[in-house]
Each structure stands twice: as structure tokens, then as C-alpha cells.
Write a structure and sequence with these properties.
Length: 183
């Protein structure tokens, strides 16, 4: 008779890891609903984290995009969502390259790159989709210049939440061995 203990334990460990990761990402997404400085959110960080930590590529994309959509249903849908969700998907891909056990400097570098990408793409979306700026190079330049004051909050939020998510999960992994072995 075969012993099924290790198989059951492995399945339980993987389920624990997925549940923990999804819970952390959902919590990070919910911070969008709390009062915060403009653009100081966990959006880029939670996408990087999902990409780095979920072994299943589908889960890596689904969980952060679903969490973002759920909070957007509360905050309101808008014409620039395609640009935001495209950036989130790109951040998941970037997280895949960061990897699950990355050094803090690598995580910080990815968060910085994500902030820059988010700034470029979403502000292009504002220019392209809104009537706030004329549809010319001068209008696009004006849009980017107007967004510069918000970039510092974007960067600060991305670095803060990346440290919180990656660092918090590392602490949990050390305290709960099943999180470290499951992948």
C-alpha cells in the first residue's frame, strides 16, 4: 500500500502558498480604497509580486488583474483602464524575471522600472483618451510635465509596497516552512 502523506502535504503546502499570496495581493489592492496621497498605491508592487511568486502563470496574471478590477468597480471605471491594465500585465511579466527569491536591490530596481513604465504609459493614455490636452506633440509634452509632481508618490508607493510584499512574504516563509517549500 502506497503512502500518500507527502503528496497530500505537498498539495496542502501549495494551496497554503496560493491562498497566502492571493490574500496578500487582495489586501494590497484594497489599500486603494483607503485614504492615501495621490498615486501612492500598491498597483505596480502587487503585480511585480504576483509575477515573481506565483508558479502558475495564469494565477500570476489573474489574481492582480482581478483584485485591481474589483477595486475599480468601487472607485469607478474610466477610459484609461486599458493603459493601466496593460501596465499591470507588463509588471507581472517583469515580476517573472525578478523571481521568487530576489535580492532587495533587484526588487527595488524592478519597482523603479515599473514606476517609470506606468508613468509613461498611463500619462500617454490620459493624453490620448481625454480631452484635457491637444492632440499634438506639444499637448503630449504638456501632459507629461503636468504629471511630474505625481511621479514621486508613484515611486514612493511602488517601493514601499514592494518592500512590504516581498519582505513580508520572506518573513512568513521563514516562519512557515510550508510556504518556502511549496511552489
Amino acid at each position: 500500500m502506497a503512502v500518500r502523506g507527502p503528496v497530500v502535504e505537498r498539495k496542502t503546502a501549495v494551496e497554503l502558498r496560493i491562498t497566502t499570496l492571493a490574500g496578500m495581493i487582495a489586501f494590497a489592492a484594497l489599500t486603494r480604497l483607503l485614504p492615501h496621497p495621490p498615486n501612492f498605491t500598491a498597483v505596480t508592487a502587487l503585480a511585480l509580486f504576483a509575477g515573481a511568486q506565483f508558479a502558475d502563470r495564469r494565477m500570476a496574471f489573474f489574481v492582480p488583474l482581478a483584485a485591481l478590477f474589483a477595486t475599480d468597480l468601487v472607485l469607478g471605471l474610466h477610459s484609461g483602464m486599458l493603459f493601466v491594465y496593460g501596465c499591470v500585465a507588463a509588471m507581472v511579466l517583469m515580476g517573472r524575471f525578478v523571481g521568487p527569491r530576489s535580492a532587495p536591490l533587484r526588487v527595488a530596481g524592478a519597482a523603479f522600472a515599473g514606476s517609470v513604465l506606468f508613468f509613461i504609459v498611463t500619462n500617454f493614455g490620459v493624453w490620448a483618451m481625454s480631452g484635457l490636452y491637444e492632440k499634438s506633440l506639444a499637448g503630449l509634452t504638456t501632459c507629461y510635465i503636468a504629471a511630474i509632481p505625481f511621479f514621486q508618490n508613484t515611486l514612493a508607493g511602488d517601493l514601499f509596497f514592494a518592500a512590504l510584499l516581498f519582505g513580508g512574504f520572506e518573513v512568513m516563509r521563514r516562519k512557515v516552512p510550508a510556504l518556502a517549500t511549496a511552489r
